[in-house]
Amino acid sequence: MMLAGAEIVNDGSVSYKNEAEGNVAISLPHPEVQEANTSRKLNSPLRETVDMHFSNITCTVSLGFNKGHKQILHGVHGRFRPRQLIAIMGPSGAGKSTLLDILSGYRISRVGGAVFINGRGRIMKNFKKMSCYIQQDDRLQGLLTVGENMALAADLKLSTDKDKYEKGEVIEEILTNLGLYEHINTRGAQLSGGQRKRLSIALELISNPLIMFLDEPTTGLDSSSCSQVVQLCRTLAHQGRTIVCTVHQPSASLFAMFDQVYILAAGQCLYQGTTKNLVPYLEQAGVPCPIYHNPADYVIELACGEYGDDKIQILTSKAENGRSLDFFENPQTIPTMEALRKQYPLSILREQDTGPGMEETSQSNQRSVLIRRGFLKAKRDSTMTHLRLIVNVVVGIMLGMLFIDAGNEGSRVLENYNLLFAILMHHMMSPMMLTILTFPSEMSILSKEHFNRWYSLGSYYISITIVDLPISIVSCLIFSVIVYTMSAQPLDIVRFCMFFAISLYTVLVAQSFGLMIGAAFNVVNGTFLGPTLSVPMMMFAGFGVTLRDLPSYLYWGSYVSYLRYGLEGFIGAIYGLERPILDCNQAPYCHYKHPRQFLTEVSMSPDMFWWDVLALTVFVLVLRVAAFLLLKWKLNAVR
Ligand SMILES: Nc1ncnc2c1ncn2[C@@H]1O[C@H](COP(=O)(O)OP(=O)(O)OP(=O)(O)O)[C@@H](O)[C@H]1O
């Protein structure tokens, strides 16, 4: 089967002309030639293969409180043979993605049935080491180039015994084969849809998986890119891998590129077998495909019930809900489970058992690679870094101008108090909202990479904490210097350090709070919840209503409001440490000339500064741990 626009060139590789991108964009080794080419790791046939068998798979979902359950998959069976490119097809809502999620091990809750790998019950830990799952939305690091994405993935997925040249060889080979080498310096965000899809595949190919699951790899691509991606999958499959994709209504030529199809209708299997056997199968079932009709279109129409529900019943019983292997190529040669167990003795499992860790490299390696990646991204991130710095400079100048010279003047103490609260608001809102708005997109990448065993959640969490710290310190320091000097706060290094420490702590608490919300909710809910939950914090900060005037039954609120400790800390830094009498140049009478009087009036004690620091430290630690636990829960809950 040849692609339109494809030709065999002298070295035996299939050269594919990409109309969208001009000339030859990808050069895939011809399957037969590449099987003889043992010098290149990616191209050489795989020693081990994966024969997947699944039996009586069911899946139910809860429709919400008191609304009961819905069964998505109704006891489907099936067999996915190695060296095959398999398409799971069916109308929208048939359960394709659900089946793929289950077979890849991504979905684990409310799932019934059994999955067997090479004749034995699937051991998830071993299975995950030999498989990968590429979800529909390309979850790539858009700020990093193709080369950087690959290099960092190689550092995470290949053994640390390999030096950078060996890793470089693997990367070069994959990128060349996938036609991405020319784009090695292009950032992920600037790649076309087809290139992004190929990069997603390239990243997973680094660990050379034996079985790959791809959810709708052709969705959103033009026909030329679709053919490229499917041809690539076909090539990879013929090297020995088992490649399973869900596809939406493929064209006739695209359909013919798959070796095997698995057709679902309303959670039941209508057909399982080779693409070539589909037409004879339909004929035998008494629903022949009209001449000149794309069999893929026709079978989807059947599965949608356009020709009556009785046809679905006929096909489901003929396919025995996926149990029948009659329409495979040479069905009599398909090994039984027992034969497979003999072919893959238990000792293979022992070899695959590489210790307790799920990831390929040590935790310390994961952390150092993720920190490197984090700093690279931060350097280029216009929102999280550049905009954050700019906002701190601009807001600092604006507040400084608004409250210019208010710090030393006895007649402007209340103004200065307003300034301190405004600073607190700034330190609360900007890091919190930035995290709430940006973390959910980071979360989808985390979910993919963590599921595909690139790194542990602990390593990821430590790395984001470390990467963010210098950015928080620098932006907070710039802001503090600007606002502190412009508003003429006391020129005393100790007071400035105290002021800066409280500012930084407030930023860290707000950010951890944002992380908690970002981990648990999507952007819309998070954007609503973040500011809404912050309102009680402001109420209990002791600003509008002093702590003394808070009703006793609401006093507990002041203990759980981190803004209270922030405000008290600021007051301690600016008006504590036995601050001498203030200037009184701008008014005939200065009520708060004596800082002690002001402190009594707002019922705040400067002696509490270190308690405030301690309380804020506890907040940072508790919220960080809570955000980690929420993240962990969320990663499992979506499955
Ligand atoms: N968590 C859920 N709650 C309720 N219904 C769900 C849930 N997950 C899936 N479904 C339903 O299960 C059915 C199968 O979903 P699935 O995403 O597997 O279908 P699909 O065949 O992949 O569809 P599409 O091609 O449109 O992506 C759909 O009707 C969907 O609405």
Automatic annotation (TrEMBL):
Q: Please verify whether the record's keywords include ATP-binding.
A: yes
Q: Is ATP-binding found in the keyword set?
A: yes
- Subcellular location per the Swiss-Prot or TrEMBL entry: Membrane
- Major place of localization? membrane
Q: Which GO terms describe its cellular component?
A: plasma membrane
Q: Give the matching Gene3D superfamilies.
A: P-loop containing nucleotide triphosphate hydrolases
Stated membrane topology is: Multi-pass membrane protein
GO molecular function terms here?
Answer: ABC-type transporter activity; ATP binding; ATP hydrolysis activity
Q: Which residue ranges run through the membrane?
A: 389-407, 419-440, 460-484, 496-521, 527-547, 559-577, 608-631
To which protein family does this belong? Answer: Belongs to the ABC transporter superfamily. ABCG family. Eye pigment precursor importer (TC 3.A.1.204) subfamily.
Q: What is this protein called?
A: ABC transporter domain-containing protein
Q: What is the lineage of its organism?
A: Eukaryota, Metazoa, Ecdysozoa, Arthropoda, Hexapoda
